[in-house]
Each structure stands twice: as structure tokens, then as C-alpha cells.
């Protein structure tokens, strides 16, 4: 049985009010279908989950259904899912959980660092800090400030930005949902999740330390340039093993310094107007390319890799995450995100991005089954907008990540789907001049085909792309 609520006095209505509008035009927009019923179901899920469940599924710090249920519930709500669907999936997703844990002592700014990595509850602390200072200030102070990063000689390292990025981006996603929907409770829970990530991987992922000499320097180094250089580096290899997190730990231990050096070559000139948005766009394209193009081999077909899928679903929240931050913290967030994304890319086999093969061998349209044809219409052989049936079927897919990644691809297609071939001409990545905005619909179609349907669902691949 779950324990009593961690903090009885918290006002759950304040933590989980009705969702607000997206904070930025670049944030995902809502589809029609929200209702009084769906809002009631959503708030029930939030409040029940917050009172009952720990953020992790087991003592190995694997994220639990307690975090995933709220992620799926919000994706369902934003996609127009009904209240009954939201409630049903909550019941399914919350069957494997750990109960909430009460902190043996109050967390304060004074002892904040002392309990990082412990199974303590920081909910009350972050709730009070946000009430007093506001969400932007709390994120600046406890995630991005210098005092919360690596401290030379300290016996207990804060390293909060690195913690924020680890555990397959789950804290990034949780806080991102909170900012996108205006939910203080999600920000509080995401901040707590950040504090609970173990430190054994963190020091190697710090952004501090001397960067190696920059090669092939130019005025504006694109993220595709960085990937092209890393693709040619035969030393960036790991051993494929049965436990992906162990392989990730190997990538961190053996290659984090080199990866950080490559990321240091990526230029972010904050004095240029619109630079943060341009560099964020680069990360969004790269996240989808690593997952979709990296997962496609013409003779074998497409493999939907579980951990690289999280790179895509987390990148959906970059527009909402950068909105409340100062310029310097925006740049730090993007660079830390790239370090972590590339570490996962290396850990999953550093698959080559064969853009030419991908763009000439993958579909952009979704065919209509003969039984679903539209009579004599000249358009009867394909859906006019493939994203509509993809989202519709993803709402009911049993796997809780399918709708989330399809929502990401749909949004990226909205933002960048009209970019023509030649958009990336001049970057060092082979074939980049052939890439256009159809990347996102191609990725969505490949994912839909790989993951199957509600009636015949399939599973993500956990074997890497070696």
C-alpha cells in the first residue's frame, strides 16, 4: 500500500491548476478535443499521483510509472484525448510504482547539497522556494547557477545541471511539461527528480574544464558539423552490452571529456538576435535525425531505439524550457543538452547518418486501406494529412511513449516541415544538403509502422544501433 501523502498541507489545486496556454509560439500547441471531462480526469491524475507515488519505479532509480503517467496524461490532454482515456491509462500505468518517501528532516538552502542523491523528498522545499521566488528564479538558482555546479575540492558535489540532464532526460521532460502547461507541481516534481539522480556519472559530464583546441574553426559552427567530426573519430566507441545504462556509463567514463571538447566547438553567439532560437532549432533537427536517420539502414529497414527516442521526446520541451531563463542560462542549457544527447548517441552505437539513403528510401505519405477508401475521390489512395491518423491511433496505443514521440514529430513538422532541400547546405555532414522538412513525417511514419497498432502493439528496441 502507498504511504500517507508526503506533504499533507500542500494545496494541490495550486500545484495543479487547469493548464495554461503554451509559454511560447515555438512550444507545442493543443489539438481540439479538450473538455470539462478531460480536465477533471487530468487533475485527478495529477493529484492522486502526487500524493501516492515516488518518482522512481524501483531502487535502481529507474523512472517509474508515477512520472510516466503524468507525461502520458498531458500528451493525451494536449492531443484531444477524452477523460475516460486519460483515466484508463492512468490505472494501467500506475500499477508498478514505489510509494512516496517522506524526508527525515526539512530541506533548506543550508543543507540542500547534503542530501543530493539520497532518497529524500525535496517537494516541500521547492514548493516553498517557488512560492517565494517564482519558477524562473528557482531554476536559475538551483539548476544553472555557478554555485550549483561542480565545485573544486567539495566533498559533496551539487552538479545540478548535469543531474538535470541525466536519467534519460526525465527531469528535463518533467520540468518541461510543467513550463509548457503552467503547472507548478510538475516543476516541483521535476526539480525533486533532479536531486535524486546519483552522482556517479555526473562529474565526468560537467561542462567545466579546459576544452581542447578547436579544429576546422569557422564563424558559425553548426551542430551537423560537430556530428560529422565525431563520425570520423574512430576512438569514440563503446562495447555493446545487455544493459544500456551500463553502456552509457562506459561512454561517460571513457569519452565524456572528448565529447565535451567537441561540443565546445559548437558556436552560440548570444550577441546575435535570434541566436538561441536558431541553435535550439539545430538541436531539434539533430535529435530527430539521430533517432530516425540513425535508426534506418536500407537493407534492414528501421529500428526504433528506445533511448534515442527519449532524445526526441525531450527536445520537444526546449522551447518551453528556454522561455523563462536568462540569456546565459539558455545557452548553458542548450550546450548541456547537446553534451548529453551526443553521449547517448555514442552509447547506442554512434550510428552513421546516411541522409541520402534515408531521403530516397522512406515514405512521406500514408496509404489508405482499401476498406477505408473514399469512394470516387481522387485522393482515395492516401490520407491528405498523415499526421491526423497517426495522432489518432497513437492516443490509444498501449505503449506510453508512442503518442509522446508522435506529438513531437507533428509539432516539429509544424515548425520546420516547409524547409527545402539545401537548407543545410554548407555544413560538414555528408548529404545534409538533401535534408528537408519531410524528415519529421518520415520519422513519424517509420515509428508508426515499427510500433504497430492498439490491437497488435510492438516494443521499442533496446539493443542499440551498433
What does this structure look like?
The chain has 466 residues and is mainly alpha-helical. Helix content is 48%, strand content 1%. A two-stranded antiparallel sheet has the order 1-2. Helix 5 (123-133) crosses helix 9. Residues 1-7, 56-66 and 209-217 have low confidence and may be disordered.
Q: Spans of 5+ residues with little confidence (pLDDT < 50)?
A: 1-7, 56-66, 209-217
**What average pLDDT do the residues reach?**
88
CA radius of gyration: 22 Å
End-to-end span in angstroms? Answer: 42 Å
Tally of extended strands? 2
Helical/strand content category? mainly alpha
The coarse silhouette is globular
The H-and-E topology, N to C, reads as HHHHHHHHHHHHEEHHHHHHH
At a glance:
The chain has 466 residues and is an all-alpha fold. It contains 19 helices and two strands.
Which terms summarize this structure?
single chain; 466 residues; mainly alpha; two-stranded antiparallel sheet; 19 helices; 2 strands; disordered N terminus
List the helices and strands and how they pair.
Blueprint: H1 12-15, H2 36-52, H3 65-78, H4 83-93, H5 123-133, H6 135-144, H7 160-165, H8 170-181, H9 184-196, H10 223-231, H11 244-264, H12 275-292, E1 296-297, E2 301-302, H13 306-315, H14 318-322, H15 327-347, H16 355-361, H17 387-395, H18 402-416, H19 439-451
Antiparallel strand pairs: 1-2
Helix pairs in contact: 2-3, 2-4, 3-4, 5-6, 5-9, 8-9, 8-13, 11-15, 12-13, 12-15, 12-19, 13-18, 17-18, 18-19
